[in-house]
Amino acid sequence: MSIESVRAHFKQWDREQDIMEFEVSSATVELAAAAIGVEPARIAKTLSFRGEGDTAILVVAAGDAKIDNKKFRHSFGLKARMLTPDEVLEQTGHAIGGVCPFGLKNKLDVYLDVSMKRFDTLFPACGSTNSAIELTCEEIALYSFAKDWVDVCKGWADEEELKENAG
Fold this sequence. Notes:
Radius of gyration: 15 Å
Structural class: alpha/beta
Helix content: 25-40%
Mean pLDDT: 93
Order of helices and strands: HEHEEEHHEEEHEEH
Oligomer: single chain
Strand order of the largest sheet: 6-2-3-5-8
Distance between the termini: 50 Å
Strand content: 15-25%
Number of strands: 9
């Protein structure tokens, strides 16, 4: 059902045929990278957090990035608290391993982390544990109806290089 909602979502841009389905699982960053044949950093992972009230906030980040609690609190005014797998399914309509910012069950605020901007294209999931689509950052922003770009992650390659070059 979930991949079907994503297919329907991409139909508005005539991109549903660009969704790739794999014979193997792409449920984690590492599995997705192996299935596609790219470095893990190029997997666009969608993370689900508690927002205000009962709604979730989705953050899409590069596969090698980790949430920085201090940056998250600064950006959103909230503590970074991830949803449980059941809450993720309830909020997004997608099960863990296939969560993406497309074809969502509820209207949620989607933010894109700057960790993705160093790549020409990335590969977000498409609602199932064996799917992905290759998109540019601009396309991810357009197709996810993202509210904004944020800087809420740490541990990704370019950030480390910037620190080294500054010192």
